[in-house]
């Protein structure tokens, strides 16, 4: 947070400047250097505007200056619209003139190759050294809609401007940002700040997000990201937004490498990048939009209505068919469509004998004979069940002039009587009427399914105060791992020490000792060669299972050594591990930690066998875990029902599993950068009262030095 | 088909009448009996209109008649807008007057209880006896938009009329139909016929669908259904539409019982109703829409663009970010985003060095400097790969007046050069401009994700000629089953005879015979008591597995009899079944047939164990199977990858599985109504060359007499 607090002032000078200079200013208002001068003059910017161009006296009716230094007045923001070779000189000038922020449109940097990347890196370093905030290069700049700052050469505002509002939008891509701007305009969505970050030599996507999290003019944040340069910085920014209670809606595409490469990311490995982003978003309650429509629906709705108290919803309809459709949708989205009490149902049926009074409430076409039925029914519903959300499908009524006053007074009455209920109406409405209902914090949808989907997403926003319960620091002392894979007994010992329940085992160095260990452990045992040089012991015949009695154990000790030696002559054998067989009554799971290059250690949990390997059904979380994360991971699996006791078995002990995941997460944090990966496979989950869960095999790998 | 051919003429007189009478006509154009008179007069109906009302001489400036008979001119259609008690008399009058079709608005029939249902049934029988087609009661009627027939009292056309078009829309629900009418109007979707079927005393949803399938004015059919009264009739209508090559888009809600009951259908059993509808829709290539937006997107797009040749798609973008988003979407939807050849890629890169030339093709912002790049790039893409579909994301350009002529000529040029390519543009466009591109058979989407989703759905429509390859009649002679469960050996013998590969087994009646059978079979065996009275043999200790050698087999024979007798003293034991153990190397599957009350025999296939029981991952098909259905069922499972060889195993023999499903389907058809259900569980699927698949246990139940 300190990082952002200190950066905040610098970004404020950039995003809310009192004076703006345009370097490379042009008299032609269609050119890259002419557009910002034109916009600043026409669109109501209140501060000073200084065109800089050594070859002109006046530009677009303003006095022109030969350099930034020559202006002799404070310049908060300099927009550099000059070719790449002139950028260094212009930047020198900006630093000398005491400019606080720079927007750099110019292309010709990292996107053209190594030389450009090096020039860009130098520029970023110079900006940081000089304390100047730099946005770009290769970007479309930004617009502070509320303050009429148009530091962009996008033609989009010329077609029509977005209205001021309380949604901030940041995009790494200029073209995407421009389309989003146009869509916001067409849909009547108001914006506070619109920013594109381009190559991000200095200011990153995460910095803009953090600034918006602290901006009093912004309630909701929309982000478009292709790839994150600094995972911890993005996480800190998301935490800031969460703490501020500001919903974040994000579109993330496959990768920065476009097109087919982006497509290819879908076939990536188990814990592929995109799944990690998903996990990070989930950690901070980010709503991930999969389409542009969803992007705007979610952000606009969050700005209009905020988060419902919980997932309960009352559904009201004038059409039984649409009621059933809404019920179908609401169930699929996990909303709580609880029925009205019998008393409330009776009351509705008194008014309309053929009404469906349960929930959805279908008051039928009777409403055309008695318009008051709508408000009366809604009040019965909300008084009876205190639904967090109420959605009314009023068919095409909204398009009728005769009905509009009834609809408006219905919403006004419900808003007054139920101030903390999320209200939504599905009907066809003109934009002006829609805006009137939205001003009463009532959402409006033409398609009731959009309403259900949006309300369900808003109900998934973090509860107020969720961010306060931050993750506790890991328990226990630091762990330092040597590079490379640990032997299995070493890995098991380390995990056992970290609080992971592991199978009972002994390390032995001879056949007699193996037989004695088996007897001490009791029952059937498994025997595996121990060698730090052998990653896959069963592939070299180094594993024997279900051994009963001393003779079988002795024979297995000798046989596995011979097999392993034959397969890998150079491998050092360090005895064998004898472990009690865990009977097959539990559910086979897998748990692990791997280090993501962007976001650091990621915890993984899944069901074993085909679920992980073939169906790729795993839950991921960045570390440290938030309270409740481990339990939530168990619920997230598509196959979660298997933990509830498939095939007649009682449910497994979820608390024991969650505690094991927490122990593994703490272990990974204590090992820090010295841990490359850790995997428990299988982790057998058993019903409560049958021993909780137990790690049967483990692989721990230290990072290369 | 004969059914529909003979009905067709009757429905044509109903839907395309030359003369219309309104019984219960009112001078008040706001009333149920006044609205149709008003609509017929104002909206351009070309034929005669006869208001019928014994208490008036003139109605709305037309001469009024005391009865239908009194008119003395042919009346094709009579609209009955009278209270329920007067319906019988009005219907008598209609029959006597030789009316061909009746629309019955009146409520007070099946929806009010048993008496109403009886009256409705009588009315339906009388209509059929008299050869009069009757739509309703309790319906909103219909509109033949092309012929200006407004046989409805819905206020929707008063707000604004839908334009004539080539999409027919049928809805069981009046309220849903009215909303759909309003949405069609707002979205500029043109309709041929709009019909609501209400209580369906005579004309059913399926009849309207069949009529539209044969109507030369209709290309695409939209349907909203709550519940089907006659499964074979609906299937025949869908087959008719498929044979006519007309896409059908359908919304089906949970059930006719509204609200919470509809919601409850989501938690129904394994092969619950809704899943059966899904299977029937899949069988006839029906596109099932899950939202109103999808309903219109799909139907309108099908009408504009039809079906693409295959799933290949070329993606073009001015924004790399949106290109990645489109690639993500296209992959998720199973479209074939194949890359351009190296030569084509080189050519694009010659023009724009920083272009992404693979597919998606991102030609970058360079297009603003050279507008011809768009058409040139599209031609390179389409010449190189002959994509069935081409989707271009042109950002906000469509909203710019300067760009519009470029866009229009781009589409015109591509349409001329590639007449059989599905063209689609994603940009922001006014309705008028959108219509202009649609007239060139080019789809337009504001959200590129909607475009991808819609194109993928259209690619799923049945290929031309698919309907011609109708299902072959079942092979073999009829089978007649006695009521009740067959014994396991009887079931296995019957299935083996039907072509299902079954495990090697013997039926034995003594311990020595059991031991001899085991020796003859070889290897380990299973032994199970045989009894038609015991459905779950393992629950009564009647099963012993993995028996080796004569002693174990003898002991098991005695033990299972004792256990079964103890558990079920009254059960008749009929010896034991000794079967060769099938080793655990295969994939455990389950296959079965059950009789759906609406659609008859339904074939089911799934993976065994948790996949069926906990994850409910099954594929269903109505019988008879269409060619390719059995293989398609294997692909449809969420866990289909397991058949491809999970955990290092080779893929299972899909051909053997498909042949077994076909054999089971044929068996079910040969058994006809005498079969209640058949289930093979487990059906072990093994790799090709390892014996195909084999039924290990089977349960066949004959229908109660």
UniProtKB/TrEMBL annotation, chains A, B:
SUPFAM superfamilies in the record: Glutathione synthetase ATP-binding domain-like, NAD(P)-binding Rossmann-fold domains, Succinyl-CoA synthetase domains
Domain CoA-binding: from-to ranges: 14-109
Pfam family membership, one: CoA_binding_2
Listed name of the protein: Acyl-CoA synthetase (NDP forming)
Gene3D superfamilies attached to this UniProt entry: ATP-grasp fold, A domain, ATP-grasp fold, B domain, NAD(P)-binding Rossmann-like Domain, Succinyl-CoA synthetase domains
Molecular function GO terms recorded: acetate-CoA ligase (ADP-forming) activity; ATP binding
PANTHER family, sorted: BLL6376 PROTEIN, COA BINDING DOMAIN CONTAINING PROTEIN
Residues spanning the membrane: none
């Amino acid at each position: 947070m300190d990082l952002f607090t200190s950066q905040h002032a610098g970004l404020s000078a950039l995003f809310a400047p009192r004076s703006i200079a345009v370097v490379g200013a042009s008299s032609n208002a269609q050119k890259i250097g002419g557009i910002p001068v034109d916009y600043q003059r026409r669109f109501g910017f209140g501060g000073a505007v200084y065109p800089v161009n050594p070859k002109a006296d006046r530009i677009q009716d303003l006095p022109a200056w030969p350099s930034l230094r020559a202006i002799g007045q404070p310049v908060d923001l300099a927009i550099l619209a000059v070719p790449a070779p002139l950028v260094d000189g212009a930047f020198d000038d900006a630093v000398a003139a005491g400019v606080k922020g720079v927007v750099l449109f110019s292309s010709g940097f990292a996107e053209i190759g190594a030389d450009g990347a090096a020039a860009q890196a130098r520029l970023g370093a110079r900006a940081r050294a000089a304390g100047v905030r730099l946005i770009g290069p290769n970007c479309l700049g930004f617009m502070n809609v509320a303050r009429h700052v148009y530091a962009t050469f996008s033609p989009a505002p010329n077609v029509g401007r977005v209205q001021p509002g309380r949604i901030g939008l940041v995009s790494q891509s200029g073209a995407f940002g421009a389309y989003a701007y146009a869509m916001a305009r067409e849909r009547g969505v108001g914006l506070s700040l619109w920013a594109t970050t381009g190559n991000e030599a200095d200011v990153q996507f995460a910095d803009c997000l953090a600034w918006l999290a602290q901006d009093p003019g912004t309630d909701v944040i929309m982000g478009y990201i292709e790839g994150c340069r600094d995972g911890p910085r993005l996480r800190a920014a998301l935490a800031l937004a969460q703490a501020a209670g500001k919903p974040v809606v994000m579109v993330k595409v496959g990768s920065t490498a476009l097109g087919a490469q982006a497509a290819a990311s879908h076939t990536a490995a188990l814990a592929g990048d995109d799944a990690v982003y998903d996990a990070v978003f989930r950690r901070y309650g980010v709503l991930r939009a999969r389409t542009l429509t969803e992007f705007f629906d979610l952000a606009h709705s969050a700005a209009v209505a905020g988060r419902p108290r919980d997932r309960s919803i009352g559904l009201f309809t004038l059409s039984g068919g649409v009621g059933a459709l809404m019920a179908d949708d609401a169930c699929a989205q996990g909303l709580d469509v609880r029925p009205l009490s019998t008393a409330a149902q009776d009351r509705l049926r008194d008014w309309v004998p053929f009404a469906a009074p349960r929930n959805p409430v279908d008051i039928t076409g009777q409403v055309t004979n008695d318009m008051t039925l709508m408000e009366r029914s809604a009040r019965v519903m909300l008084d009876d069940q205190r639904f967090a959300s109420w959605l009314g499908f009023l068919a095409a009524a909204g398009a009728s002039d005769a009905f509009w006053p009834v609809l408006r007074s219905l919403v006004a009455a419900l808003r007054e009587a139920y101030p903390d209920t999320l209200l939504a109406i599905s009907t066809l409405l003109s934009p002006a009427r829609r805006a009137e209902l939205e001003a009463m914090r009532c959402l409006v949808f033409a398609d009731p399914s959009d309403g259900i989907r949006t309300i369900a997403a808003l109900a998934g926003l973090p509860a107020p105060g969720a961010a306060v319960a931050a993750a506790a620091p890991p328990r226990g002392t630091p762990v330092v791992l040597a590079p490379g894979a640990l032997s299995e007994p070493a890995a098991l010992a380390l995990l056992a020490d970290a609080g992971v329940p592991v199978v009972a085992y002994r390390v032995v160095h001879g056949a007699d000792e193996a037989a004695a260990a088996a007897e001490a452990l009791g029952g059937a045992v498994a025997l595996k060669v121990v060698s730090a040089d052998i990653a896959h012991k069963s592939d070299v015949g180094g594993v024997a299972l279900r051994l009963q009695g001393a003779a079988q154990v002795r024979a297995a000790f000798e046989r596995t050594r011979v097999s392993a030696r034959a397969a890998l002559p150079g491998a050092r054998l360090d005895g064998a591990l004898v472990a009690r067989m865990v009977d097959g009554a539990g559910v086979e799971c897998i748990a692990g930690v791997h280090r993501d290059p962007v976001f650091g250690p990621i915890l993984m949990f899944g069901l074993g066998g085909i679920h992980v390997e073939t169906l790729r059904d795993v839950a991921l979380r960045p570390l440290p875990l938030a309270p409740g994360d481990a339990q939530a991971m168990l619920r997230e699996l598509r196959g979660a029902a298997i933990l509830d006791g498939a095939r007649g078995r009682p449910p497994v002990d979820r608390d024991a599993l969650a505690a094991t995941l927490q122990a593994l997460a703490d272990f990974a944090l204590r090992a820090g950068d010295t841990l490359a990966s850790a995997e428990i496979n299988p982790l057998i989950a058993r019903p409560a009262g049958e021993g909780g869960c137990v790690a049967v095999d483990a692989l721990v790998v230290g990072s290369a030095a």
